[in-house]
Amino acid sequence: MNLETSPPLAETLGVLETAALLRELTAGLIALDDFDEALSALVRITRDAIAGVNWCGFTALRAGEAAGVAASDAPMSGLDDLRYGADTPAMDAIRLREMVRAENLATERRWPDWTARAGEFGVLGVISAPVDVDEQVIGAINLYASRPDELTTGHQLTAMLLAEHAGLLLAAVRDRQRRSAQADAQDVALLGDGVIGQAIGVIMTQRGCPPEDALEVLRSAASSLSIPLRQVAERLVSTVSRPRDN
Question: What positions belong to coiled-coil segments (predicted)?
Answer without folding.
Answer: none
